[in-house]
Amino acid sequence: MSVSALSPSRALGGVSGLLQVVSLLGLVLLLLKVAQLYLRRQWLLKALHHFPSPPSHWFYGQKREFQEEGELPHLMKRVEKYPRACVRWMWGTRAFVWLYDPDYMKMVLGRSDPKAQVSYTNLKPWIGKGLLLLEGQTWFQHRRMLTPAFHYDILKPYVGLMADSVRVMLDEWEKLVSQDSHLEIFGHVSSMTLDTIMKCAFSHQGRVQMDRHSDQGEEGSPAEGGRA
Predict the structure, then answer these.
(1) Which of 133, 198, 213, 228 has the fewest CB atoms within 10 Å around its CB?
(2) Which stretches does the entry tag as region Disordered (predicted)?
């Protein structure tokens, strides 16, 4: 083996050539990714052009507006300005469609499109993997078994009872919101659900929600300490 083959200049030349190849490949991959994101954004713009939306930045969407004003105030403004639906751009290539019109919701919920895992991930620890989170053939089988029990003619007599339970919960929320700007709704929704089930399934015309609020107000009482 000759000495020239092991010379530092030849070794540096090989490393330099390798770096050039790696840089070229990196540049090509970057250009492909940019083209992919561009095509993705164009597809979203075309797919969502029927839904109204305020102007959004091509890169960070509308995140700055929500950070400046807060989530709930900005959402309320959107609902007032766009009474049926609107688009919220999270990033340049990611958007959510907010639907709050009953007719729009009926059309969307009547479809059998795959469910977005991002939207349902937070619900799984709360409600478990039931009918709402299932997909495919398993969802179809469970839905077919439950549909007769939830027919409109069967549920119609219970609508008034459900509305009464919800009204009690909303009245309590109005009292609590006037005292504090923050409200934890998990316990209230659970009590409202229990109240509805007791009325509809067992014909128990009790005061589940009001009794819960009374128990919370009696801190340290013997009745509260004796509960399981």
Answers:
(1) 228
(2) 208-228
